[in-house]
Amino acid sequence: MRFLRLLFLAAAVGALAPAARAEIKMHELFGDHMVLQQKVENTVWGTADAGAKVTVTLTKGDKSDAATATADDKGKFLAKLPPAAAGTGYTLTVAAGNDKVTINDVAVGEVWVCSGQSNMEWRFNLLRGGLDMAEKAVNKNIRLFTVPKTAVAEPQAHVRAGAPYETKWLESNKDNLFTFSAVAAYFGKHLQPTLNVPVGLIHTSWGGTPAEAWTSKEALAGNDEIKHYLGKKEQMIKAAAGKGLNPHTPSSLYNGMIHPILNYSVKGAIWYQGESNAGRAAEYRTLFTTMIEDWRKAWKSDLPFMLVQLAPFHDGDAHGVNYAELRDAQLYSTTKLPKVGMAVITDVGDLFDIHPQHKEPAGQRLALAARALAYDQKIEYSGPTYKSHKIEGDKVVLSFDHLGGGLVARGRVLYGFTICGEDKYFYPATATIKGDTIEVSCEKVSKPVAVRFGWSNFPVCNLFNKANLPASPFRTDDFPLVTATKK
Fold this sequence. Notes:
By secondary structure, the protein is α+β, with helices and mostly antiparallel strands.
């Protein structure tokens, strides 16, 4: 009986005791070493007790900025901090009642999303001499975050925790960089010193994946040319029931690797992808521009977007044109949409390796494009791009934008040009720089119609400007593309 009375008393006391308080839980992007975007409001979000008043404070020295929010009936809260000055040494605290979360070593600066397929994912530890390269890329004012690979059927609120990446911000040191995206790291290396503020790199990529996987269901549905992917999505989801979703599934990576970070304020995005869409290159003109606009709408910003044009690669046939047509679609995006820049890397490809070892040119040229288009620096950021042409007898005279101080051939003669007549059969052509123009001709073509440059999977071409940036492959014609009927 005495035992039963004690048990009853303990139960009664327990019933009168206050309920255990729920801990504040922050979204995965909030942690030590994080970087907040300067010059804009920053959204801070997580969960607490339902109905709790949450106070968010960003402190540096004796200066603090604060914002408040009330958790909804599911405990979710979202507060908006006012813009903060660039720098390091901030502390972010989130308090609700007696609960408080403190986040240390917070920086304010520039935040960039780094996405795509394997050439963006490619880490220093996969490069020859990668440890030495990583050590040379170290910059204490750069912070790193990698989103784990997640392919799901519906948009997610959280970044999935999971190996092999730690779901937290990391400092830029040799060990952390060794397993981080080399292109993203080189982008940061060349961008940060020119801005002189901290830079945060959010890496979210997955090798071998197509652009439709990174595009929302709503964006795909809104365009007649690419809405066929919705049917493919449903088929793949059904086939994958209980097995985990294939990362090729349309919208799956947008749902799992882009949607969870959309509340986070960022400056822009860098992108290295296209190999998986090369067989459908003509369609990529629509798909890729739709994806960019989709991300801009989702982030509610103009989101400057810098891409790497595909490197030379045989793709089963060095003289094939799938990669050429994909590069053309990438070039098209820079003319179709504002604040889209492109890093051309025709000089660093590998005939037999789809993952060229030289990653720094891609990162450096992405940084040039970002400096010009996102930060309005008055620099030359692109190699020559085709502007217009005129036919003069048996010659075609080409004009260019981005002269960069003048056109030059890297080598004794200029090569990489082909020309055709009315039969549309392209012959290797002689090309000569004439001031700011190039004259192209061929003795087999007396009445030229069109010129192409670098038009193959593995182009061998050497047109640069004096800023030492390679020209983008291009065509003067609008002939039907080989990949036009492929979906």
